[in-house]
Amino acid sequence: MADTGGHATRRDKGAGAITKLGNGRYRAFVELSPNPADGSRRRTSATGHTRTEALNNARAKARRIEEDITLVDEPPTVNEWMRRWIDEIVTPRRAPNTTRSYRFRIEHDITPVIGAVRMDRLKPAHIRLVERHCLEGNPAKGIQGKSPATAALTHTVLSEACKAAVAEGIIRSNPVDAVEKNRVPPAPIATLTPGQAAMLIHAETDPRWSIIWRLLFITALREGEALGVTRNEIVRSDGLPCLLVEWQLKEFDGITDMPAGFEARRLDGRTWLTRPKTRSGRRLIPLPADLAADLAAYTADHPDIDPDTPLFRSGRGNPIRKETLQNAWRKALERVGLPRVRVHSARHTAATAMARIGVSDLARRAIIGHADIGTTDAIYTHVDADMLAGAIDGVERLIEG
């Protein structure tokens, strides 16, 4: 029986329906694998001059589609994908404060601007639009512009989200790659000179704060690392007293459970001990004899503190929080009449002192905990305790006289 336009004809084994069209050509339909997003049925079609040609064309088209499969038939909007990305990909893997920061940038600087745009239609022009929104704000709506650093962070959030969309098969390429990140001019950092640091230390009458100030200025500990020092981190290596930095004190609001793989121990309320962010952050720092002796005496005066919890405590016996540290720091500066500088600037003072006395770059990176030297190399291979001890002793002499 002859084919008539629009009517399906007999199928070849393994093929879908084949229909003869009004123009004499044939259209073949081929089943695809189920949609991986929801399991729904999918198929495609192609035409040809003969039934065999149409079927071969449809099968070839199906192979191309299967090789370039996406998770959804219609890509999500930026708003839809951002919600999914932050909930399913970022939250289970990042520190809570990082997730909170990313979510804030999404809700305030990304989705209000390009949230309705479909992910597969996202262009570099959209990325630049977000950047302008960050920097210029919207005066008509009373929205002020933000700093270049905030614009750069928003760029990073967009880039990571789009990179994940590429990995998920939602888009082919990352449109953010085509837009240069906004440059962040280096902000001047006010620091104390070694002499001014000595003034602050010598004027401190509280043994607890005196030790913390010396840890900050001499060993270049970060704030959280100084507040998180435990008895178990005070060790000896090569016969020398050392501090093995393995934990830092962090504060998280409204968090009861950490993401899987994020090593942390809850102390009380919003305070946690977490691992340093990078491998180089876990490091061995030799202690000058005087500082080691004062730290040992302070430890002996507080035998009731669990050796695996922070050594320095508030008047109520709780781990010292960052706000308490900053208040004590501000009062110490005012007491001596020194300019107000950030606590973190003590690391810069320490680094400057090390450079002044000629400490090698290798030793400086190992002590300060910057990238490029991992924990194993810093402790056992490239830098020995004697080399680092010489650097630390030199910084102590320069600061404390």
Secondary-structure topology with pairs:
Layout: E1 7-9, E2 18-20, E3 26-32, E4 42-48, H1 51-67, H2 78-90, H3 96-114, H4 124-136, H5 148-167, H6 194-203, H7 207-218, H8 223-227, E5 234-237, E6 240-245, E7 248-251, E8 264-268, E9 271-274, E10 283-286, H9 289-300, H10 322-336, H11 345-356, H12 361-368, H13 375-381, H14 385-400
Antiparallel strand pairs: 1-2, 2-3, 3-4, 5-6, 6-10, 7-9, 8-9
Helix pairs in contact: 2-3, 3-4, 3-5, 4-5, 6-7, 7-9, 7-11
Radius of gyration, whole Å: 31 Å
- Determine the CATH superfamily of the largest domain: Intergrase catalytic core
CATH architecture of the largest domain: Orthogonal Bundle
- The outline comes out as elongated
What's the total helix number?
A: 14
Encode the helix/strand succession as letters: EEEEHHHHHHHHEEEEEEHHHHHH
CA-CA gap between termini: 108 Å
Task: Kindly state the number of beta strands.
Answer: 10
Global mean pLDDT? 84
CATH class categorisation of the largest domain:
Mainly Alpha
Secondary-structure-based class equals alpha+beta
Helical coverage, percent range: 40-55%
CATH topology-level fold name of the largest domain: hpI Integrase, Chain A
| Count of structural domains | 3
Uncertain parts: 1-14, 372-384
Biggest pleated-sheet summary: 4 strands, antiparallel
Q: Record the strand order, biggest sheet.
A: 1-2-3-4
* Strand content range: 5-15%
Keywords: DNA integration, DNA recombination, DNA-binding
Organism: Bifidobacterium longum
GO biological process, one term: DNA recombination
GO molecular function: DNA binding
